[in-house]
Each structure stands twice: as C-alpha cells, then as structure tokens.
Amino acid sequence: MTGNERDDMPHRHMNREALRNRDDLIGEHKIGDAGQLILACLFLAAWIADSFFFKYTTFLNQYIPLGVKIPLGIVLFILSGYMALKGLSIVFGEERQKPSVIRNSVFSVVRHPIYLSEILLYLGFLMLSTSLAAVVIWIIAIGFLHYISRYEEKLLLAHFGEEYEQYMREVPMWIPRLRRK
User: Fold this and answer.
1) Separation of alpha carbons 90 and 54, rounded Å
2) What pLDDT digit, counting tens, does each position of 104-127 carry?
3) Where are the alpha helices (DSSP H) in the chain?
4) Rounded CA gap, 173 and 165, in Å?
5) Phi, psi at residue 136, to the nearest 5°?
6) CA distance 60 to 105
7) Residue 121: which of 92, 84, 71, 173 has the closest Cα?
8) For 161, which DSSP code?
C-alpha cells in the first residue's frame, strides 16, 4: 500500500459514512446488501460448478447454438452494465439538496433499474451456459429483489406520498413499456 492509498483510506471511509447520513437517500432493507451478496456468490458458485465441472443440469446448452448464446449474453452484459452504472451514478453520484423522486435516465424506464441490472447480469451468464441449478438461484434472487424493492417502495411512499404514487402509475416496476403513456 502506497502512502497516497493510506492517506485516502479515511476519506473513503468518510464517504461510506456520509452516504449513510445523506438526507436525499431514503433507505433500504437492512438485509438487502448482504442478501444480494450471498445470492450472487451462490449463483456464481452454482453456475461455475455446473457449467465447467459437474455439468449435471446443463443439457439445454446443446439446443442453443453458440452463435445465438454469445451475442445475446454480450448484449445482456452491456445492458446490465449500462443500467447499473447510470442508476448508481444518479443515486449516489451527487447529493440532491431537496430530496425528490428520481425520474430521469434509466429511472424513467423502470423504477428499479439497479436491481433489474442485477437480474440481467445473471441472465447474461445463463445465456452463455444454461445451468438449471443456477436458474433456480436466479429465480430466488428475482424473488428477493422483488421483496426488497417492495420494502423500499413503502419507504418512498411514506416519504414522498402522492409524488411517488404518480411515479408508480407512470413507470413500470420491472418490465419497460414499449410505448410511453
């Protein structure tokens, strides 16, 4: 570790602490981050073990040509990365002086673009190698993300009231509308 890195450590720690105390961030489920990390590790462990070593539940791979799987997987990875980076930079990038419902960029397409990016990331891996064992964990992860999204929406409704209700009517939770209202 260089001297500059050591000097930055308290600054990085202060940034995490500052995020917890920001007035423009309404809150999240207390097990949200830990649950996502655990499910991500389980998914990757199952996907890697089944896709490359055991191959117990990868029989569907023989029916999907590589010329379809690889481009589709790459598109899903790119879309997932874009949604995650845009969503995270909007939420955490700058502090809003007056807290309000975020409606711009990816938040105008779906209400939970960061969680959707996680779902699409897993789906990208599943396109590259279809492991039914990993599909089961992916479905559990979707259920978990839906649960914590609903919890966060209750917090947002309590904080923003009618403004968030209107946002819920205008913007879908997970699946983008093909046409705008």
Assistant:
1) 41
2) 999 999 999 999 999 999 999 999
3) 3-20, 32-48, 66-92, 113-128, 132-160, 162-170
4) 12
5) -60, -45
6) 36
7) 84
8) T
Say which residue the tokens 């409606």 belong to: 103
Identify which has the larger pLDDT, 180 or 69.
69
Domain boundaries, the chain: 3-170
Looking at residue 107, its amino acid is F
Q: CB neighbours (10 Å) of residue 33?
A: 11
What is d(CA 59, CA 68) in angstroms, rounded to the nearest whole number?
Answer: 16
Encoded tokens for 98: 């007056």
Look-up of token digits 């419902």: 101
Tell me the pTM: 0.86
The mean of the pLDDT values for the chain is: 88
Query: 159 near 26, Cβ under 8 Å?
Result: yes
Please tell me whether residue 159 adopts helix, strand or coil conformation: helix
Q: What is the CATH number of domain 3-170?
A: 1.20.120.1630
pLDDT confidence of residue 27: 81
**What are the structure tokens assigned to 68, written together?**
């379809």
- Each residue of 55-105: pLDDT tens digit? 999 999 999 999 999 999 999 999 999 999 999 999 988 777 888 899 999
The pLDDT-based confidence of 1 (bands split at 50, 70, 90) is: very low
